[in-house]
Amino acid sequence: MSGETSVKASIFEDHLWLRGPSSGLRPTLGQIGLQQFAPYLINSISLSWVTHLASALKAHDMTTTQMRALAVLSISSPVTINELSQFALTEQSTMSRTLDALEEQAFIVRKPRPEDLRVRDVEITQAGRDAFAKVWPTMYDLLIRMFDGIDSEEYKAFTATMHKMMSNVRKHGIGSFQRDT
Amino acid sequence: MSGETSVKASIFEDHLWLRGPSSGLRPTLGQIGLQQFAPYLINSISLSWVTHLASALKAHDMTTTQMRALAVLSISSPVTINELSQFALTEQSTMSRTLDALEEQAFIVRKPRPEDLRVRDVEITQAGRDAFAKVWPTMYDLLIRMFDGIDSEEYKAFTATMHKMMSNVRKHGIGSFQRDT
After folding, report:
1. pTM score, two decimals?
2. Which of B31, B146, B155 to mutate to test the interface with A (most CBs of A within 10 A)?
3. What is the ipTM of this complex?
4. Which end of chain B is more exposed for a tag (fewer CB within 10 A), N or C?
5. Domain B48-150, what architecture?
């Protein structure tokens, strides 16, 4: 290791959250360990999920972004392109192209909002709902396999921690995808 | 919602883990809710982390993949390209190009292994360790902000759940990035 501090790994475990960022007593990554460094685990699991699903979606002739758009719209429709991009974790420019493809397949329609014709709302069609309903079992079954051996209580605790993190992301302005253009 | 089943949202919360994937009683995504669908939260947090860090790394003239390679090598060196790619969550082809750039900056060296000259080991240099040590405070401080209000016990429970998921990823063969080429 780089030996930049003399803090021991055990101190990370016991006192990590008592120290602020400017205390000057940062443990090294080696002292924490890659498997205890939460962002590494999150990125790794995210990558496995996305990669596996992208490959399964190919059988349905659907991209990840198309699936995400339909998933959001299956819950809430109509929405603006801006709302849809945010919820579907996709940049607006990518979402625009995705909506072109979805409109061609008649899975969505874009309509000017009567009160403000400059705003176009995105609405899912029944064909779009049916298309998402066809891929949903794959997603749900993947969820079940990923959480194999994890009970409902642990699942709730896990998502509760992530809700705190999402709130920190907003509170501390931790970069959303939209800043990266 | 698509109305494909008559299961209520509350049942998802209570009985999700009692039902197998083939029970035919899948709740819809709308019944679960996007904010209770763990993969959505994981992907969202991963995206915020990666995007924020990528932007911070620019000030150090470093890409995400370069940072990941140096991070892994700061813990374990020398390693093979294959090991490095796996731990750094990066495809081998991308990692090869990344190593070219890192070698140019004298942050790593590639050496044929004496026992088997066909294998080339990747080794971090002191300059490489120094370069990672310069970006590490940014990463650590981001971690602290992301886990603001989350104590050590909750952090441990959170990573423990992710370890179970990583084990499920391996056990159920849930796609690693390397399948996606």
Report:
1. 0.86
2. B146
3. 0.86
4. C
5. Orthogonal Bundle (1.10)
